[in-house]
Amino acid sequence: MSLRFEQPVIDKTEQSRAHIGITDAEIVQMLAAYRLFGFWRIDIETGHFFASEDVHAIFDLPYSEGPVNLAELMSRIHEDDRNLIAQTFEEASLHGVGFHFVYRVCNRLGGHKLVRSVGRFRDGQSGGGIVGVTYEFVERLRVVGFEDDTRPR
């Protein structure tokens, strides 16, 4: 599986959205509208992992607002990819870097689906730990249909 570490973004100009008039909340809603796209945070001091509803759905875990059962979550990841996950979090913590990685998660059908996680280290001033997103590579559309009601009655 692929793994890429990144240096913290220093020279990249932040994208401007002010002229578009789009909010962070609207961006999150649009991302979540077309695929399972979840957010998570690891508190390095406690080792607790907190995740949004979509992360729970990706790993087929019951949702709770408290810390996720990491043993149960890790059991859903392909055994060959588990060391990659541990290595990634360790490197991000030690070196303060961001990362991208792709790994396999049980799909409830006897096989695996591809999942991507993107994260970055957070310094102590912003809460410490690691924050990120996780989403499925396989498109699983959340479709809303509208009835064409323009025909004459």
Automatic annotation (TrEMBL):
Residues 49-127 form the PAS fold-3 domain. Signal peptide: none annotated. InterPro entries: PAS-like_dom_sf, PAS_fold_3. Pfam families: PAS_3. This is PAS domain-containing protein. It comes from Rhizobium leguminosarum.
